[in-house]
């Protein structure tokens, strides 16, 4: 049976099945009430890792989590991401890893989440127009100043991860990865070798897992849903894997959380391991 917890950075223990807050609605008052209810239910169900980002609703996602959960339970980690900003003139999003922009984003995240320190901060994307040493050097300075606890990356290659680790300790990587999309297997292997948390996003290929006959067959045998099978496979596939499936539905949230209790036999794992290609 796979371990149910992981220590990010070697010292921050979280449950391995987390929650991605990106899909929580925030625009209308009734939407916010529903989002608050989902976030609170996630914590009630034992979720101790919630992922958000400045980009999600231009900070509104961080605000709704604070509204729902602050003051936070001691064992709850809310991780956010910086490095993608929105133009005030055009409304378009673009990469911005310049030191002044990263510092401003961190200060804004601290205010929105109502905390003095971001225990895990991830660089949403590497900005190709700014030297990586400047981007990660800024995050290292913020860590040394006490505003950041641990530093992570998102959507990086194995080579970029190796380069980043020459500059600063990396505690997590958040890349696209699921049962039928394993492009970043080399990055996962690098994370396993260094005991770095791997937070896959798009964990169930936009809900199309059931389109695969083998997934549907395994789900039927386990009396589970295809989504649950895909999440159980992720948890079983690597000890550093911390899936963060997202939803705006309490029913779907409860379905996702129940996936942690599925047990895959060696025979079932083998059948699922044999699936390849995009969904």
In short:
Keywords: Oxidoreductase. The relative contact order is 0.14. By secondary structure, the chain is of the alpha/beta class.
Description:
With 279 residues, the chain is α/β, with parallel strands linked by helices. The protein has ten helices and eleven strands. A seven-stranded parallel sheet has the order 3-4-5-8-9-10-11. A two-stranded antiparallel ribbon has the order 1-2. A two-stranded antiparallel ribbon has the order 6-7. Helix 1 packs parallel to helix 9, helix 3 crosses helix 4 (132-144) and helix 7 packs across helix 8. The longest helix has 16 residues, at 29-44. The mean pLDDT is 94. Pfam families: Aldo_ket_red. This is Aldo/keto reductase. It comes from Streptomyces durocortorensis. Residues 16-275 form the NADP-dependent oxidoreductase domain.
Q: How would you describe this structure in keywords?
A:
single chain, 279 residues, alpha/beta, seven-stranded parallel sheet, two-stranded antiparallel ribbon, 10 helices, globular, AKR_Detox_Biosynth, Aldo/keto reductase
Per-chain topology:
Layout: E1 5-8, E2 12-15, E3 19-20, H1 29-44, E4 49-51, H2 60-69, E5 77-82, E6 84-86, E7 93-95, H3 99-113, E8 121-123, H4 132-144, E9 151-154, H5 158-165, E10 172-174, H6 185-194, E11 197-198, H7 213-222, H8 226-237, H9 250-258, H10 266-273
Parallel strand pairs: 3-4, 4-5, 5-8, 8-9, 9-10, 10-11
Antiparallel strand pairs: 1-2, 6-7
Helix pairs in contact: 1-2, 1-9, 3-4, 7-8
């Amino acid at each position: 049976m796979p371990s149910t917890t992981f220590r990010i950075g070697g010292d921050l223990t979280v449950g391995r099945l987390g929650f991605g807050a990106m899909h929580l609605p925030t625009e209308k008052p009734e939407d916010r009430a529903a989002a608050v209810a989902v976030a609170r239910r996630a914590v009630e169900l034992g979720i101790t890792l919630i992922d958000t980002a400045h980009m999600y609703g231009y900070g509104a996602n961080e605000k709704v989590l604070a509204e729902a959960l602050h003051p936070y339970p001691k064992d709850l980690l809310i991780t956010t991401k910086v490095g993608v900003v929105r133009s005030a003139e055009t409304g378009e999003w673009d990469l911005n890893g310049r030191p002044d922009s990263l510092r401003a984003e961190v200060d804004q995240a601290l205010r929105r989440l109502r905390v003095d320190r971001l225990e895990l901060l991830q660089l949403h994307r590497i900005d190709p127009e700014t030297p990586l040493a400047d981007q990660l050097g800024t995050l290292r300075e913020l860590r040394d100043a006490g505003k950041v606890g641990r530093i992570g990356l998102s959507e990086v290659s194995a080579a970029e991860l190796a380069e980043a680790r020459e500059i600063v300790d990396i505690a997590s990587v958040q890349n696209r990865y699921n049962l039928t999309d394993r492009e970043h297997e080399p990055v996962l292997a690098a994370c396993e070798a260094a005991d770095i948390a791997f937070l896959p996003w798009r964990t169930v290929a936009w809900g199309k897992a059931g389109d695969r006959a083998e997934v549907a067959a395994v789900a039927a045998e386990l009396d589970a849903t295809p989504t649950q099978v895909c999440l159980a496979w992720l948890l079983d596939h690597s000890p550093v894997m911390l899936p963060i499936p997202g939803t705006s539905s309490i029913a779907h949230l409860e379905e996702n959380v129940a996936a942690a209790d599925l047990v895959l036999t060696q025979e079932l794992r083998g059948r699922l391991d044999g699936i390849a290609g995009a969904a």
